[in-house]
């Protein structure tokens, strides 16, 4: 707990009258989470403006308000600032006593591979006997405890609270998945980063960033933050030309380069050889078994090892743990139903889709796909994803996920525009119906991959969020088929 003036000292060029300097016992951007003595920070979001909920926050006990506009008749102090989103992280950092400075915090950013790299790094830290934490798309972990999080990178106040809880539980190293939206919106403001890794930059979110150059500059904000924190190192992908932009953002920090090409100059190389990998650390190469599918996961493993090197872990002793590593749920996850071969993957970008399909067809076996695109998101990638699916897949079932308020028929039309009709075996505005058809194909002996949602267990339809578990739907239909009950 802190007095309001102490929380804002050095953050704002203002003087707070001692007569209106309340003790702040909690902070929140959601008025429903305010309790007596709280500081309510008004955030103007995509669909909700926190300024509209000031009265509710005061009713719940708010002792002060941080806002972007004044409220002259407000019964509690109102501090006005130009940008509450960015200030929220700085205030939360002070409220929770600067938790990121009490451990080593590692950021992971890029278009694809963030979640996998984050989890692999977390698992390797724990294999090294280090008490580690993780904050990612698939939730936050404090050692073995799983905590659900609403976004790839939680909002700033939740993020700093999680870091505080990790410090309280003795965590020394925490890996955070950092999205471009989080960087643009200031969700990691106030975090002191020990180091950060860049996976890759490919076509995605251009509805938000407008160009690949702007997208790259947003990603580079993480590396600027490493530099501002006087961080140990940055971990960059030798195979991705956008690494140059990340390097320019932190020109004085040491670089740990990684690659999947064994003869390229780098400190770490991981070469994928189907069911084994060659791991080169400096000049020493070791071959070890792996359960990780695809060259792209070799790159993710190399990036994770780069973070551990920045944390001074002994990589040579950790090589023996590589065979134990598993992908996060929803990343090339095989459904537990023999003899059917059904995979679920999060792939939702052209590059991510191609890498997924390459991995599953590398043996020459045929593959069918449930292909989808999200509503109210980057429309420019839809046709490209259709073309990629046509290149690798025998059969394509087209559908949607998270249509929101966009017309599902329009989404599908843009997705299938370049798909040859001989490949297209179904179009469903209902994702449930698409999964049922996929179960039938699998029951007939087809290899299936379902892309787009991965671990996600909700559907966003209109303005509602409803439960939606793809694995449960598939297993239920396969059970009915096995009993001869299903009808199409």
What is the makeup of the main sheet? Answer: 11 strands, mixed
Helix fraction bin: 25-40%
Count of individual beta strands: 25
Radius of gyration: 24 Å
Q: Regions with pLDDT < 50 over 5+ consecutive residues?
A: none
By secondary-structure content and strand pairing, the structural class works out as alpha/beta
Kindly estimate the percentage of residues that lie in beta strands according to DSSP.
Answer: 15-25%
Strand order of the largest sheet: 10-9-8-11-7-12-13-14-15-16-17
Shape: globular
**Tally of separate helices:** 16
How far do the termini sit from each other?
60 Å
Q: What does this 3D model show about the protein?
A:
This protein has 488 residues and is α/β, with parallel strands linked by helices. It is built from 16 helices and 25 strands. It has an eleven-stranded mixed sheet with strand order 10-9-8-11-7-12-13-14-15-16-17, with helices on both faces. A six-stranded mixed sheet has the order 18-19-23-20-21-22, with helices on both faces. The chain is globular, with a radius of gyration of 24 Å. Belongs to the MurCDEF family. MurE subfamily. Its main location: cytoplasm. This is UDP-N-acetylmuramyl-tripeptide synthetase. It comes from Exiguobacterium acetylicum (Brevibacterium acetylicum).
């Amino acid at each position: 707990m802190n007095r309001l003036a102490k929380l804002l000292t050095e953050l704002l060029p203002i003087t707070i009258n001692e007569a209106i300097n309340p003790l702040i016992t909690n902070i929140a951007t959601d008025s429903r989470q305010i309790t007596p003595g709280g500081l309510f920070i008004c955030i103007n979001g995509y669909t909700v403006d926190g300024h509209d909920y000031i009265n509710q926050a005061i009713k719940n006990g708010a002792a002060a308000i941080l806002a972007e506009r004044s409220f002259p008749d407000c019964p509690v102090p109102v501090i006005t600032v130009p940008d509450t989103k960015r200030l929220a992280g700085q205030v939360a950092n002070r409220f929770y006593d600067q938790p990121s400075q009490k451990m080593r915090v590692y950021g992971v950013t890029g278009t694809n591979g963030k979640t996998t790299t984050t989890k692999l790094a977390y698992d390797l830290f724990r294999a090294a006997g280090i008490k580690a934490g993780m904050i990612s798309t698939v939730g936050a972990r404090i050692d073995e405890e799983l905590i659900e999080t609403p976004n790839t990178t939680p909002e700033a106040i939740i993020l700093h609270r999680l870091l505080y809880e990790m410090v309280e539980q003795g965590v020394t190293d925490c890996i955070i998945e950092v999205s471009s939206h989080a960087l643009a919106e200031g969700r990691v403001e106030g975090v002191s980063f020990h180091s950060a890794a860049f996976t890759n930059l490919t076509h995605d979110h251009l509805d938000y960033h407008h160009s690949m150059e702007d997208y790259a500059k947003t990603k580079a904000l993480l590396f600027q933050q490493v530099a501002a924190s006087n961080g140990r190192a940055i971990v960059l992908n030798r195979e991705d030309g956008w690494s140059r932009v990340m390097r320019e953002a932190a020109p004085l920090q040491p670089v740990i380069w990684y690659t999947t090409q064994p003869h390229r100059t780098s400190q770490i190389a991981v070469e994928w050889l189907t069911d084994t990998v060659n791991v080169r650390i400096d000049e020493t190469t070791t071959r070890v078994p792996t359960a990780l599918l695809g060259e792209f996961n070799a790159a993710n493993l190399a990036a994770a090892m780069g973070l551990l090197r920045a944390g001074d872990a002994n990589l040579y002793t950790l090589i023996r743990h590589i065979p134990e590593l598993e992908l996060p749920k929803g990343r090339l996850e095989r459904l537990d139903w023999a003899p059917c071969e059904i995979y679920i993957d999060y792939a939702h970008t052209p590059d991510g889709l191609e890498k997924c399909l390459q991995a599953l067809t590398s043996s020459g076996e045929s593959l069918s796909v449930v292909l989808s695109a999200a509503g109210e998101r980057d429309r420019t990638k839809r046709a490209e994803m259709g073309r990629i699916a046509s290149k690798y897949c025998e059969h394509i079932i087209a559908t949607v996920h998270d249509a929101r308020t966009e017309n599902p028929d329009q989404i599908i039309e843009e997705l299938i525009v370049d798909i040859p009709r001989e490949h297209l075996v179904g179009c469903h505005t209902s994702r449930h119906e698409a999964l049922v058809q996929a179960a039938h194909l699998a029951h007939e002996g087809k290899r299936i991959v379902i892309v787009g949602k991965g671990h996600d267990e909700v559907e966003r339809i209109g303005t509602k969020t409803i439960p939606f578990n793809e694995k449960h739907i598939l297993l239920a239909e396969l059970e009915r088929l096995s009993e001869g009950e299903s009808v199409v």
